[in-house]
Write a structure and sequence with these properties.
The complex is a heterodimer of chains A (604) and B (611). Chain A is an alpha/beta fold. Chain A is built from 22 helices and 10 strands. Chain B contains 19 helices and 12 strands. The C terminus of chain B is likely disordered. Classes of the chains: A alpha/beta (604), B alpha/beta (611). The interface between A and B is large, with 199 and 198 residues.
């Protein structure tokens, strides 16, 4: 039995608010963007040009041309014709700049998203198994799909618009100040209510979006389970109830989203109202200034156009507030994933390596281990396995057999004591340095969606097809593969329905042996084999074990017999150990476990 | 060809409309708000133009302008309300529709036959219910309001121009169709990239899903690098699709901006020429051109955004297409219209296989003519090499698959003539590959019988010998298992699966190698307990182990999709055929490897057990 992590119903990664503030998140995002600083430079240059166009364009038409129209000046450089021609030239240039900007912005955005996705995936490759044992597959997937997608929207759609708007704002304000000081202040009288409104909504909108991300993660994981377990569901004709269950989380997701949408829709409507108020205010105040001769009507018109430019990005931002919030919330979750501390970390700068010439020697030195601190499943274990020794570990479920395997693979670290290979504490050696030298044949024969060749080659890419075929012949696995439609090139599908359980185990076995491991670990690895296949496999195993250390967890006597030594585990401790004959003679736990076989013999 | 394609396209829109029309009240509200909003939006530039005329015309315009300012505020307040109802209406529509869509997808997935699930990867299916559905939502929630708003706005602006100034209106009326044409070209060029992107998005999902479920193997084989490369490949392809689309966009979006800007220049030019006529009122023209500038300003943002809208629309339709591929996929195994119910109390439990042939899909034939009968109450063991067809045959009884030819009958009735629900609820099957749900032990055991009292759950757990380890869990039967809970060993999972099946009290019980990971002692204990359970039921036990055969009243030996021998242990052993070979082979390794004298006695032992 393995008690996995904590059993809180709450996902350790779930919180009510975001973990990081906008600033932290943006800084992280910017560090990703800086990789593409060349694209960014193009975008920046183009944005500055766009800002100039944004200032000069309205000036040419609203001030120069408007004045010309009123005064009937049309021809020449200073007339309507001149202003309009200048405007046309300006916008033709702007077209090229705009084209470059859009392109490089997209290149940058898509690359950043790709990098973030890859980095999160890489992080997942380094996270310890304990991370996985407390989260559903769907929930983890949601980080790399749903959450990164939300960010992707932001990077490729909104950010360009927002950046353009911001630069425009920066250039418009001085221009306005230049034309008329007081009118500028009047125009920006809308800023305080804007700020107040934003502050009032911010917290509520933020938490409502955190809620939506959580809900979609739940939907995703229900979905994943619903799909992965569909065959069981159908066997039990529970489709309807499962669908109702799904409907419940789907419904919750709906309501949470509607709530968030209501808030943002309201927010953006109010922003537009404020903008209109500002425009009205400028018209009214501008008129009084015109009357007092402080300002020309053209400038009031230009101000109105500038205000329009000023509000466009803000409005855009608020209509996109939904996706902005989704984006930062998504980013927050992705960064939480990336920053998750690794429970079983690789050592820093380790040059240690295992001696390649001999089989691995293992030592458990006063090892105490539990999946939770208060429930040890291995208790002060001392165990030495010599090089080339074949050890069988037996015991009832929950005795700690699989935990020993988990510790040898360093899926977990012990709470106390040391696990050593060739005298090196596993915590001081790089994962690949020792995992490369050992092979696991797992309890659950997991195969990848790839050909049989590729599956056997998994983890050792340089093996030739011929070597695989030779090995499979030696192991007696070749037979069934030859019967498959496309032999070794047959594609194993996801649930491997085209292979029987025993066949999957045989492939797993070949995959382990082809690596020529210095340590072979078999975790109840032959349970699905038929007697003849098992016999073949055992013969092959007897040969394959030469020159290797092996740990075999098994229930069947036939497999246990291969071992030089048998270790009987009970409640995390070694209850008995010795050779088959010794244990058999001792009349202890071992002989009791196999009493079924023995009692009859003794009665004869 | 293209007619057919068009029809399919049309079908797609009709189906999406079906989803939306359920919320026609929302749509009506959106339409009404859209029209009202457009009217108000268009009125404001006109008022601004008026204000300019007033200012230019008189030195004492304060009263008139104040009125206009107040009108602008009033109109804006009204437009904020309509803005809200249009914007929220879109979101509401989108959320409601995808809620329906997700449910429908989920139900479709639940209803699909085993062969469908063999072919479709979990990650791919998930991508449909997440990414693809989300694309539809984005279109409906955001796109529908925007598209509606913008189409109305274009119409509204054109109309406003006609009221404003005929010459200016003529210019706008000529140019807007050009804008729409460019947008349409834009969408056509971009679409293929998005379709490809959605496919690659599905690939990302399935690589990811496989990686997470196979995490331990990846680690144990230190193949993290390889996995990263695999992921990188699909991730890069996805990005390249999007960049391909971006290239198209970076051509068209600036083009649209340019066209609008040139329009504005043309308007000013025209206003300039109009002002040249001596009879003209230049102040009036100045007001009109200002209104025109603001009206065009209304279009500038949306037009720039048009490209993204088209993209949202296409992406949404591409997503919807992929949703339809699942919801509209034909289901292979369904109730016939004349199917009958099988009543539990009337089932005798006779199973007949009549010349059954079967192969998965186009693959080679796995069952090559199976012909035999299982009598009611019999306990039959299926024995044979891995891949010889035992599981495949068992899967035909609850109709997980349909035979290629021949018949499977229960009580002399073809299973295809029985309603699926009643067929499967009377068959309990414990499969090799155990799947537990992320739920408590209790919920898992009472999976098929939701309201079972705890005592019954414990009783079933006792029979399956699951009680002994469940009792040691801190929260006993309330302990969470499955992905987020306690990690169970193979043997523990099998025991829970057995309990889960026993509790449904099926007339026919199929145990597919379901004791393979259980230790010998426990196995024997479970078998003893099963002796009472199998009373009055028909039982099929698929097995690799001779030890499991103790309970069997008959042994059926499979080889390469055929039945080669059947009978009782002694008969079969005496026949000295396949069974004898299998039987002795299981004992042989011990002789060879351990070389101890007790081996012969062990053989004896096993024989006794089997008798």
């Amino acid at each position: 039995m393995t008690v996995a992590g904590n059993l809180n119903k709450q996902d350790p990664g779930e919180r009510k608010f975001r973990k990081y503030g906008d600033r932290v998140l943006l800084r992280r995002l910017i560090s990703y963007m800086l990789v593409y600083r060349k694209d960014f430079a193009v975008v920046g240059a183009s944005l500055i040009f766009a800002a100039a166009v944004g200032v000069i364009g309205p000036y040419l038409l609203a001030i120069v041309a408007l004045n010309d129209i009123v005064t009937r000046r049309f021809f020449g450089f200073t007339g309507v014709a001149g202003a309009v021609s200048a405007y046309v030239v300006l916008y033709l240039l702007n077209y090229f700049s705009d084209n470059k900007r859009t392109y490089h912005m997209q290149i940058m955005g898509q690359n950043v998203i790709q990098d973030i996705r890859r980095d999160s995936f890489e992080k997942l490759q380094r996270l310890s198994p304990s991370y996985y044992s407390t989260r559903e597959t769907g929930r983890i997937m949601s980080y790399i799909t749903n959450d990164v997608d939300a960010l992707s929207d932001f990077m490729t759609f909104q950010l360009p618009a927002v950046l353009a708007g911001l630069i425009l704002i920066v250039s418009i304000v001085p221009t306005m100040l230049y034309f008329n000081f007081t009118l500028t202040f009047v125009a920006f009288a809308v800023i305080p209510p804007l700020v107040v409104l934003t502050l009032a909504f911010q917290g509520r909108i933020q938490s409502s979006f955190v809620e939506t991300r959580k809900k979609i993660a739940i939907v995703t994981s229900k979905l994943q389970e619903g799909i992965a377990g569909v065959k069981v569901t159908q066997s039990f004709t529970e489709e309807q109830r499962v669908s109702e269950d799904f409907d419940a989380v789907n419904q919750e997701n709906l309501e949470t989203n509607l709530h968030a949408n209501k808030l943002t829709s309201l927010f953006s409507a109010l922003i537009q109202l404020i903008e209109a108020g500002g425009i009205a205010f400028v018209i009214w105040y501008g008129t009084t200034e015109v009357i007092r001769g402080q300002v020309t009507p053209e400038i009031v018109v230009a101000f109105l156009l500038y205000m329009n430019s000023f509000f466009t990005p803000i409005i855009q931002l608020t209509t996109f507030y939904n996706s902005y919030q989704s984006a930062v919330t998504g980013l927050d979750r992705v960064i939480q994933l990336m920053d998750t501390s690794i429970e079983v970390p690789a050592p820093k700068e380790s040059n240690l390596a295992l001696d390649n010439s001999k089989a691995i020697e293992i030592e458990f030195d006063h090892v105490t281990f539990g999946y939770t601190n208060d429930l040890p499943v291995i208790k002060d274990l001392n165990l030495k396995i010599a090089s080339e020794e074949v050890v069988a570990i037996v015991g009832h479920t929950g005795a700690g057999k699989s935990s020993i395997v988990n510790l040898i693979l360093r899926f977990y670290d012990p709470q106390q004591g040391r696990v050593m290979m060739n005298g090196i504490d596993l915590r001081e050696i790089d994962f690949s340095k020792f995992r490369d030298k050992l092979s696991l044949v797992p309890q659950d024969p997991f195969l990848f969606q790839a050909t049989i060749f590729e599956n056997i080659r998994y983890g050792k890419e340089d093996v030739t097809d011929q070597q695989i075929i030779d090995l499979c012949k030696r192991l007696g696995v070749d037979d069934f593969i030859g019967h498959l439609q496309e032999g070794y090139n047959t594609l194993v599908n996801e649930s491997a329905t085209n292979l029987s359980m025993g066949q999957k185990q045989m492939v797993c076995f070949a995959r382990a042996i082809i690596r020529e491991p210095k340590l072979l670990i078999m975790d109840e690895a032959t349970s699905g084999l038929d007697p003849i296949a098992e016999l073949q496999l055992q013969r092959a195993l007897a040969i394959s074990l030469k020159g290797r250390t092996a740990i075999i967890i098994a229930h069947r006597l036939s497999t246990i017999r291969l071992a030089d030594r048998i270790i009987v585990m009970r409640d995390g401790e070694i209850a008995e150990e010795g050779s088959f004959a010794e244990l058999n003679a001792r009349n202890g736990l071992f002989s009791k476990m196999y009493a079924m076989q023995f009692q009859l013999r003794q009665s004869q | 060809m293209s007619v057919l394609k068009n029809r399919i396209q049309f079908e797609k829109y009709r189906k999406l409309a079906d989803y939306c029309l359920k919320y026609r009240r929302t749509i009506v509200i959106m339409l009404a708000s859209g029209v009202a909003l457009t009217g108000l939006q268009v009125a404001i530039p006109l008022l601004i133009g008026n204000a300019v005329t007033i200012i230019l015309a008189s030195k004492n315009a304060i009263h008139g302008v104040l009125m206009i300012s107040l009108e602008i505020i009033g109109l804006s307040a009204a437009s904020a309300v309509f803005q809200y109802s249009l914007g929220y209406g879109g979101q509401y529509l989108g959320q409601k529709v995808i809620y329906d869509m997700r449910n429908k997808l989920f139900i479709a997935i639940q209803g699909q036959s085993f062969s469908f699930h063999d072919k479709n990867q979990t990650g791919q299916l998930m991508a449909r219910a997440t990414g693809d559905v989300e694309a539809v939502r984005r279109f409906l929630a955001f796109g529908s309001a925007q598209i509606l708003g913008q189409v109305l706005l274009m119409i509204g602006v054109t109309i406003a121009f006609w009221f404003l100034n005929v010459e200016l209106a003529a210019i706008v009326t000529v140019i807007l169709p050009i804008v729409i044409y460019i947008a349409w070209r834009f969408s056509q060029t971009q679409a293929p990239f998005w379709r490809k992107a959605r496919i690659n998005y599905g690939n990302i999902n399935s690589v990811l899903q496989e990686n997470i479920t196979g995490m331990k193997i990846v680690r144990a084989f230190s193949a993290e690098e390889k996995e990263i490369q695999k992921f990188d490949a699909v991730n890069t392809e996805y990005r390249d699709d999007l960049i391909g689309a971006a290239k198209v966009r970076s051509f068209y979006t600036p083009l649209l901006t340019l066209v609008i800007s040139l329009t504005l220049a043309a308007l000013y030019f025209s206003a300039g020429t109009q002002s040249l006529a001596l009879s003209s009122n230049t102040v009036l023209i100045a007001g009109e051109i200002t209104s025109a500038a603001f009206l065009i300003g209304l279009l500038l943002g949306p037009v720039r955004f048009l490209g993204q809208l088209i993209l949202i629309f296409q992406n949404g339709m591409a997503g919807f297409e992929r949703v339809l591929q699942i919801t509209d996929a034909s289901v292979e195994i369904v109730d016939r219209s004349d199917a009958v119910d099988l009543k539990a109390e009337e089932i005798k439990g006779e199973i007949t296989f009549e010349n059954v042939r079967f192969g998965y899909g186009q693959d080679r034939e796995i069952l090559k003519g199976i012909d035999f009968r299982i009598e009611p109450g019999e306990i039959v063991a299926f024995l044979g090499a891995s891949g010889s067809g035992k599981t495949t045959l068992a899967n035909l009884v609850p109709r997980f698959y349909d035979v290629t030819s021949g018949r499977v009958l229960i009580d002399r009735k073809d299973v295809r003539e029985i309603k699926l629900k009643s067929l499967r609820s009377n068959i309990g099957i414990v499969s090799q590959d155990i799947f537990l749900f992320s739920a408590s032990v209790r919920a898992n055991i009472s999976y098929g019988k939701w309201n079972t009292p705890l005592e019954r759950v414990i009783e079933a757990a006792k029979i399956a010998r699951a009680d002994e380890f469940v009792d040691r869990f801190p929260e006993k039967y309330e302990t969470l298992v499955g992905e987020r809970g306690i990690t169970l060993s193979g043997g523990q999972k099998q025991r829970i699966a057995i309990a889960r099946t026993i509790i449904t009290d099926p007339r026919i019980l199929i145990l597919d190698d379901s004791l393979s990971s259980v230790d010998v002692e426990t196995e024997f204990a479970i078998q003893d307990a099963l002796k009472t359970v199998v009373q009055g039921r028909t039982t099929v036990m698929i097995t690799q182990r001779l030890s499991t055969l103790r309970l069997a009243t008959r042994i059926v030996v499979f080889d390469n999709g055929k039945i080669v021998e059947q009978g009782k242990h002694d008969e079969l052993l005496a026949r000295n055929g396949s069974y004898a070979r299998l039987y002795y082979s299981q004992l042989a390794p011990q002789e060879k490897l351990a070389g101890q004298e007790e081996e012969l006695e062990m053989t004896e032992t096993s024989s006794q057990i089997l008798r």
